[in-house]
Design brief:
Layout lengths: L5 H26 L5 H22 L6 H25 L4 H5 L1 H40 L9 H35 L16 H13 L1
Helix pairs in contact: 2-3, 2-5, 5-6
């Protein structure tokens, strides 16, 4: 309501905010020193151990279902804790930013192992139900155009072999990444194939139409 007092008010507000940031930074760096990097590294290590343990328990046919559900519920919480601390730690120091990409790759490798294990578990459940249906069909009247139980066993064996290969590769990538991180070496970048998401001709025509409009 007083236009002549706007500029002094802005200067006072900016000065107070800058002074507060400086005081908080000095107190956090000189008096209450708390580094987030060691805690983040420990959280990532714990996440990798949880992922490896979860994959082992999930694919164990004798494992307790309640234990599997508990471990499955712990993984998202551990991942969210890592992501929240990564955002806070990024502006801490220069060496913290150096560790950002290796820790992200370890987190990605842990998630990849969990996803591969979930896919393998779903395939095993599907193959068991398919085998039961094939066995009941064979016991009943057989039809020549329907797959037999032998075909189901062959398909299940092939799927099981592919899942075991994917699990072994995911575990190897995770353990090699942890070993390289412990040695201070550069972690291998994930080999992800890049492809065009949409039709380039349609995309170009849409861009031209938008530019003309």
């Amino acid at each position: 309501l007083e236009p002549t007092g706007a500029y002094p008010l802005l200067v006072a507000r900016c000065t107070e905010i800058a002074l507060g940031i400086i005081c908080a930074a000095l107190v956090s760096r000189l008096i209450l020193v708390r580094e987030l990097s060691p805690k983040l590294v420990e959280l990532v290590r714990a996440l990798t151990r949880r992922a490896d343990d979860f994959a082992t328990v999930l694919l164990d046919p004798d494992a307790d279902r309640e234990r599997v559900a508990a471990k499955r519920a712990e993984l998202p919480k551990a991942y969210l804790d890592v992501r929240a601390m990564q955002r806070s730690r990024y502006f801490e120091r220069a060496d913290a930013r150096v560790l950002d990409q290796p820790l992200r790759r370890l987190t990605q490798a842990a998630l990849e192992l969990c996803v591969t294990a979930e896919a393998a578990a779903s395939h095993r459940v599907a193959s068991l139900s398919y085998a039961e249906k094939s066995l009941s069909r064979d016991n009943a009247t057989s039809h020549t155009n329907e797959p037999s139980a032998e075909d189901g066993r062959i398909v299940s064996a092939l799927v099981h072999a592919a899942d075991e290969r994917d699990l072994a590769l995911a575990r190897t990538r995770l353990r090699e990444g942890m070993a390289a991180f412990d040695r201070g070496e550069e972690l291998p970048r994930p080999d992800i194939a890049c492809a065009l998401w949409s039709d380039p001709v349609a995309a170009a025509l849409t861009g031209i139409r938008s530019a003309l409009a």
